[in-house]
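Lab channel / #folding
Pinned by the channel admin:
"Please post every new chain as: sequence first, then the structure tokens as a reply. Keep commentary short and put observations after the output so the thread stays searchable."

First post following the new format, from NK:
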Amino acid sequence: MILGYSTNAFVNYPLPEAIVTIAQMGFKGIEIVCKPPHLPPLDFADRNFAELKARIESNGLKVTNLNSLTLFSEKDHHLPAWIQSLEERRRIRIDHTLRCLRLASSLGCRNISVPSGGPFRNMTREEMEAHFHASLEPVLPLAEELGVQILIEPEPALLAENGSHVTGLLRELASAAIGLNFDAGHYFCAGQDPDQAFQEMLEWIGHVHLEDIAPDRTHKHLIPGHGAIDFIALFNV
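Reply from TO:
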């Protein structure tokens, strides 16, 4: 197990500075967020990845995950989504994910995390799931070829927001290239005890996010120990 820190907490700092600071704090892993100012996939061809990889390694870090959830091309950072009705909108998400897979492979990272998509009130769950499956079809072959897993991250109010939602998607997709990014806070927001959910989802978990949540389960991330999640129970699983 590698304990890492996400560059999501360094949105006001360039990636090189975030790398050095995370290493100085004593972490051995780094999750890099695929958005400005850190690693926007559209800049793939313009970056010196050998230099970036060398910088990460020289600071004693390993890339544990590429956080590919956000696009920020629209006001809602979940959009464009896998499950939108318009094919051209879904295509943006597909292309973004293909670029992230190549980024991960270049950096020696074994997985990327992705959202399930949503919410859309004018669609049935069956329609959303059908779009989700269809959108992943052109993505899975590259993931399998590169040996990089696509980890679905459940989140409140999205297509997959709890254990039963994501279990259904994972079983239907039935691919070794698909797994779960387990976010303890998101499960707590969805009304589940993270330790119980972790046990139930263990076979699919490829990466873990840890943050705390207030007792009222409002989706607002807190420093571990500042909320109501029982981390001792989770760590003892």
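NK: The longest helix spans residues 87-106.
TO: also worth noting, The domain at 68-210 is CATH 3.20.20.150 (TIM Barrel).
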